[in-house]
């Protein structure tokens, strides 16, 4: 008897209606606290549209200059050239306004994700039980197909930026939690014990030792959150969220290769700029980088002091 025949001849496993339970939960939420979701939708649309209008109101040359200056500060002059030419290409493709709408959606979604993720990551790092509970939930959030999030989001919030933002937050939040927990757990235990030995309370140890020393790793999590947020732009466009996602969806529906390529290229340029800038910010925030900068500054001051003393000695010899 084959394994298939043995399985068919044995007792059948009763069907577990997991999907029906999930549908019941969504229906309960819609029928009992639907007003709350209407308020959430109104707030999200107001914030996203307000930020979009503010970014669009800034003349594009000013925004490009800001990108270039940030590139020079956080990266290199080579990236500053890309931060100049990339946005100029978006302007020339007449996609600047849509790019700013996408940037506004990314900023709001990333901010909400980090506001939720960082406290959860801190709690997971401080308590092993919280970590054990959170990890399987994060695995579920990251591995569930992205389109599945859209179904309850549309039912509860309708079309517009709100369901796209909710789906984006659920998908982008796990790296923020994981990197925050990882960064705090990687802090040197001897440093923590030294702080505790000097009488620092657990809150002071967390705020003045663990969080500052884990800032570099946490910024890597911020970078990942922003990248995952941007990757949801196209999917959010399917829900009528404003920005480049709508352009991509429109190009796909009309089989317009040129419009689709231009919209996709604009998303790529925006992603590269945001990725490099946030990565550069994370590198500068890392404790090792701060120590290296302070060491270089100290060496420069010592060199200037030696030169000043040498000049003073030579002037004294000449006067003598």
Automatic annotation (TrEMBL):
The keyword Protein transport does not apply. It is a multi-pass membrane protein. Residues 292-304 have a biased composition (Basic residues). InterPro entries: MetI-like, MetI-like_sf. One of its GO terms (molecular function) is amine transmembrane transporter activity. Its main location: membrane. It is found in: Cell membrane; Membrane. Signal peptide: none annotated. Pfam families: BPD_transp_1. Residues 292-320 are annotated as: Disordered. SUPFAM superfamilies: MetI-like. The chain crosses the membrane at residues 54-73, 103-129, 149-172, 225-245, 257-274. GO terms for biological process: choline transport; glycine betaine transport. The keyword Calcium does not apply. PANTHER family: GLYCINE BETAINE/PROLINE BETAINE TRANSPORT SYSTEM PERMEASE PROTEIN PROW, GLYCINE BETAINE_PROLINE BETAINE TRANSPORT SYSTEM PERMEASE PROTEIN PROW. Belongs to the binding-protein-dependent transport system permease family. This is Glycine/betaine ABC transporter permease. It comes from Actinocatenispora thailandica.
């Amino acid at each position: 008897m084959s394994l298939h025949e043995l399985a068919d001849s044995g007792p059948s496993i009763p069907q577990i209606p997991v999907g029906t339970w999930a549908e019941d939960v969504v229906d309960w939420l819609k029928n009992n606290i639907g007003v709350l979701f209407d308020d959430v939708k109104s707030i999200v649309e107001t914030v996203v549209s307000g930020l979009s209008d503010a970014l669009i109101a800034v003349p594009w040359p000013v925004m490009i200059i800001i990108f270039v200056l940030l590139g020079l500060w956080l990266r290199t002059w080579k990236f500053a050239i890309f931060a100049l030419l990339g946005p100029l290409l978006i302007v020339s493709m007449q996609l600047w306004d849509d790019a700013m709408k996408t940037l506004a959606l990314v900023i709001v979604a990333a901010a909400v994700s980090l506001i939720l993720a960082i406290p959860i990551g801190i709690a997971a790092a401080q308590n092993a039980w919280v970590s054990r509970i959170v990890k399987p939930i994060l695995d579920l959030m990251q591995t569930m197909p992205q389109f599945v999030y859209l179904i309850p989001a549309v039912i509860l919030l309708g079309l517009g930026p709100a369901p796209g933002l909710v789906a984006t937050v659920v998908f982008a939040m796990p790296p923020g939690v994981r990197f925050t927990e990882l960064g705090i757990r990687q802090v040197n235990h001897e440093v923590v014990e030294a702080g505790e030995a000097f009488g620092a309370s657990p809150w002071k140890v967390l705020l003045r030792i663990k969080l500052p020393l884990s800032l570099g790793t946490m910024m890597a999590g911020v970078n990942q959150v922003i990248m995952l947020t941007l990757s949801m732009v196209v999917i959010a466009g399917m829900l009528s969220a404003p920005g480049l996602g709508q352009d991509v969806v429109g190009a796909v529906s009309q089989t317009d290769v040129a419009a689709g390529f231009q919209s996709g290229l604009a998303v790529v340029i925006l992603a590269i700029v945001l990725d490099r800038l946030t990565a550069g910010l994370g590198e500068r925030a890392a404790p090792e980088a701060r120590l290296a900068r302070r060491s270089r500054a100290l060496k420069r001051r010592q060199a200037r002091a030696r030169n000043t003393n040498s000049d003073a000695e030579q002037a004294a010899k000449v006067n003598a």
